[in-house]
Structures are given as C-alpha cells and as structure tokens.
Amino acid sequence: MAVQWYPGHMNKARRIIKETMSDVDLVIEVMDARIPFSSENPMVAELRQHRPCIKILNKSDLADPEITKMWLQHFEKEQGVKAQALSVQDKSRTRNLPELCRKLLPGRGGAVKYIRVMIMGIPNVGKSTLINTLAGKTLAKVGDEPAVTKMVSSAQQRIILQDDIALSDTPGILWPKIVNENSSYRLAITGAIKNTAIDFEDIAVFAADYLIDAYGDRVVDRYKLKQCPETGIELLEELGRRRGCLRAGGIIDIQRASEILIHEIRSGVLGPLSFETPEMIAKETLVEELESND
Ligand code: G4P
Fold first, then answer.
1. pTM of the full predicted structure?
2. Does CATH place domain 199-287 in 1.10.1580.10?
3. What is the residue with the minimal CA distance to atom 18 of ligand 1?
4. Tens digits of per-residue pLDDT, 216-252?
5. CATH code linked to domain 9-169
C-alpha cells in the first residue's frame, strides 16, 4: 500500500518545529498504544535533542494491556524518556501529567520559570483531546492534514496549568514515518491515515490475517464461527456471508465486509487489540536490514 508524503512539506514542518523548540523545555509525544512504533515519529527525538520527553501511549483502552506493558518498558530504556499509557476515559491520570513534568525538570517550575511544554504527534492519536482534558475546556480542534503542519509558532497561545506549566494550545503535527509496508497498513487499520487515502479491502486482508494469527479466539467468538478461518480472505468471506454483504447473484461483497471489519476493529468490539510488539518490530527491522544488504 503506497502512501506518499512530500519532502517539501516535511522540510517545512521540521523548520517550523525547530524554530519553536527554543521555547520548549519538555515534549509530550502522543502515540497510539495499538501501534506505538508505527505512530511514533523519529523526528521528535531529532528535534527535542536533550529535552526530556513524556511518551504517551494513548487510546490504551483499545490496546492489548500486556503488549502495552512491553512497549512501556521498551520506551523507558530511552534516554530522557518517561512512558505512560493513557486513555481519554481516565481524566484523573491525565491530569497527573503536570506532576510528571515537574519530576522530569526538578530545577524549573514556579511562576517565574514556567515549564514550557509542547504536545506533538501524528494526526488522530489524541493530541487535541489531551490538550482539552489538561486545559479543562474545549479548545478549537486543529486540522489534521498529515501533509501540512498547522503549527504556526506566532499564533500559539499558552495555557497555564497548575500555576507552573505553560502548555502550547496548538500541538505540533507530524507525519507518520512510514518505514515499511507493515507500518502503513497498521496506520490505516487504526485510522491514522485518512479513509480516502486507503484501499479498505487491501488493509482488511492484512488486518484479518493478523487477527487470525494473534487473536484467533476472539475472531471465533465475535463472528460465532465453528473454527478460525486459515486466511484473511476466508475470514472476510465468512463475515460477508454472516452479515448479508451480498451482491447480485449471491456474490460476497468483500469491500463491504472489509469496511465492517475495519470499523469493528477501530470501535473496540473485538476487544483491546495491539497490532505490533517490540519483538515483531525488531524482527521486521532485521529482515529489512538483511534485504537492504543483499
Ligand atoms: P489529534 O488531535 O491527534 O488529531 O486527535 P484527536 O484528539 O482529535 O482524537 C482523534 C480521535 O481519537 C477522536 O475521535 C477522539 O475522541 C479519539 N480519542 C482520543 N483519545 C482517545 C482514547 O484515549 N481512547 C479512545 N478510544 N479514543 C480516543 P473521533 O471519532 O475522531 O472524534 P469524536 O468522536 O471524539 O468527536
């Protein structure tokens, strides 16, 4: 599945974020807990340099808790990083974030030396929701065109939290860094890539193959199957049959079945699901390295 961002836009985003960074003491990077690797952007590490970073694995209500634990341990090994799983439902944990900021910057804080915080991340991971929860009110939603950064430093306002944290009211929007085809599928499944830019059938086959492999029991339960299908396409055919997705002549409408499956994954009815583990990513990275050396 080919997804293309434009180098010109990326360079512009990098330049604007770099300029803004001189007024930032701490970065909060928001990622999707279901796909922490694919929804992370390495540009954050490059741009924040020595500044501490809180990595939020958001939407943890939709992610597999055991796998989220593995990712938290993985990120905590990084220099200057604190990782936390979060979900919009949990407002009290979200509002503890200022305390974590203070711990990471013990020398700053207080009305004279505000801790200046910027929230960053790719579209649709929950940046605006997080800002609104922290602010305790609804601020305007920033557009989420992955190809264009809407972060304009001069237009930024700061929200003062608990007297000593100055949070930019506009998040820094970055593109997903699509390192390989699997990442682009995972981003599409979770909704980080706009529906108009994806082929549902293509991503549903990928998703169904993965579900059979990683969450076969849940597939059997949800679709009331006697046994788990062997391939993704068989699962989509079965789902199509059971949900009445039929075209003229009784042919199964795989496109409709694909839309249903993706919708069900995103809404959480199949239970909390994660689409990558640190181990999977390590293997995929190794395979890529070996292939590029051939
Ligand atoms: P962004 O600024 O990073 O682009 O993301 P935004 O906050 O707009 O959130 C994108 C979608 O993700 C929103 O749903 C939001 O409600 C949902 N969301 C954010 N955090 C969480 C979370 O922790 N758990 C779950 N389950 N969902 C979360 P939407 O359908 O696009 O909008 P709406 O229905 O909330 O209006």
1. 0.91
2. yes
3. 126
4. 999 999 999 999 999 999 999 999 999 999 998 889 9
5. 3.40.50.300
